[in-house]
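I hope you will forgive my troubling you with a question about protein structure. The record follows directly beneath this note:
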Amino acid sequence: MNAAQSHYFTASDGARLHYLEAKCLKARELEADSLETNQNNTLLLLPGGGFSADIFQHQIDVFSQQYRVISLDKRGHGQSEKVDYGYRVSRFAHDLHDLLTNLALTNVTIIAHSLGAAMVYNYIDLFGHQSIKKLIVVDEPAALLINPAWSDNEKQAYGSIYQAAELHGLTNGFLEEDISELCQNIVNAMTTSHATTAQKDFILSCMAIPGSAACQLYLNNICQDFRDVIKKLTLPVLFITGRASLHPWQSHQWMHDQVPHSELFIFEEQQGGNHFMMVENPELFNQVVLDFINR
């Protein structure tokens, strides 16, 4: 096992953010830990909203055999500072910009799960994708909030599953004194019937964000619409989703259709194909990702 080390950097608005780094074992064996090697050989992992950098534990161990791996604790998450400001996708996108700048990463491959992908959509909208070599999007549609004017087919294509009238009631649940049942319900809804108790417990253990921050962040993320950004993507992209995900799998088919030369992989339900396929079926997930990035 390649142990990941903790590091910190300061975002442009003063928040102290944490990330895990596992150096490439192959490069270490060759004593090739140079700036150029790191630039061309770095995988950046962006967890979903509410989840710490540890959610990618099964990926860090495997990917660091070939790559330098960095997994970010977003502000308020994991070991990052629990500031009382900035819990919106646009600020998280700037945090990503600050991280890339701080580490001088200009040719990085990003694996972004859920809200982590929304960070990347917003980052690309603001800064372009010149610094990104390849992008792997894991189960994050283009527009989560339902427009009543859309047909059922449009709702599926855009990944829209939330009703505006119910939104505050949903996110305000994180303001309750005890949110343990809510968190357990989220994990149950976002895993398949094949998930083990140990896998569910692991996912639950990675939920690491104050309730007030989760309330603000989830509300903001659900209100985003990145359909125009998806249509402008020209870099190599792999879209990954699950047949049994809360997000309609058709939403990733739609994004795949918008991005020339992109690729799509759908995990079937029996393959762990819900929201956390990288935990339920890490062997297949890692294989699919490595096949894409090693080309």
Q: What stands out?
A: The first helix runs from residue 25 to 29. The first strand starts at residue 5 and ends at 10.
